[in-house]
Amino acid sequence: MEILRVEHLTKTYGKGEAAVTALDDISFSVQKGEFVAIIGPSGSGKSTLLHILGGVDTPTSGKVIVDQTDIYDMDETKLAIFRRRQIGLIYQFYNLIPVLNVKENITLPLLLDGREENRDNLNSIVEVLGLGHRLKHLPNQLSGGQQQRVSIGRALINSPAIVLADEPTGNLDTKNSEEIVKLFKRFHRERDQTLIIITHDENIALQADRIISIQDGRISRDEVNRR
Ligand code: ADP
Q1: Could you tell me the pTM of the whole model?
Q2: 18 C-alpha vs ligand 1 centroid, how far in Å?
Q3: Half-sphere exposure for 100 (CA within 13 Å, toward CB)
């Protein structure tokens, strides 16, 4: 089943002489449960693409269709709800709320949505993430690897249609990076979670089902990973 379709996406920042084409006619489609790695040199448009897929930046032209809905056809309120329920975003620097503890950070998307936590779901996520004994800790009492695990929990708590991650291991040492890659693999396998991950980390790219290479705002390669 197709969960995401991108049609002729373009994004230009600025105007006239200062205009920068960050995305130049990008089209592709992703099936539910696929694990896609996006690679490419710095400045090639990867983050711009991820932000547009996640509904946090708007395209100059083109369409993003998630689960059969054209997301840029929605008004702001609907788009905000869509982002909260259907997209899990993970950043290189975690973006946790410093005054909230681990459990509160993970369940924040539910709170914002006025929904009760499903204790079984929360427990199972927390257990896989190995955070059961850290639920009352604040982010600054955690290591980088633990903080990234919290942000993965927050991205997964709503069982979103797609999890989007921008260099999730970019700030971690090798050991922690490997643990994070294992977690992605596990959530991909056990929850059939669709994952799209921007990475320079060969370790992640080699675990993905598919690798899309971006160069100068265009797809230069799109290949199945035959491990
Ligand atoms: P990557 O994630 O591959 O490093 P980006 O998507 O961040 O690439 O950037 C693609 C291009 O768009 C770059 O040339 C960058 O300078 C430009 N760009 C990104 N964001 C903005 C912005 N907010 N305003 C102007 N130019 C931008």
Answers
A1: 0.94
A2: 13
A3: 16
Q: Who lines ligand 1 at CB under 6 A?
A: 13-14, 20, 22, 40, 42-48
The predicted model gives 146-165 an average pLDDT of: 95
Q: Could you tell which of 20, 167, 197, 215 is best to mutate to test the pocket of ligand 1, judged by most ligand atoms within 8 Å of the CB?
A: 20
- Which atom of ligand 1 is least distant from the CA of 40? 3
pLDDT tens digits, one per residue of 68-102: 999 999 999 999 999 999 999 999 999 999 999 99
pLDDT tens-place string over residues 185-203: 999 999 899 999 999 888 8
Sign (positive or negative) of CA dihedral 42, 52, 196, 21: negative
Per CATH, the homologous superfamily of domain 33-58+75-224 is P-loop containing nucleotide triphosphate hydrolases (3.40.50.300)
Of 15, 131, 152, residue with least CA distance to 89? 152
Tokens of 190: 């056990």
Q: Give the distance (Å) from ligand 1 centre to CA of residue 41.
A: 12
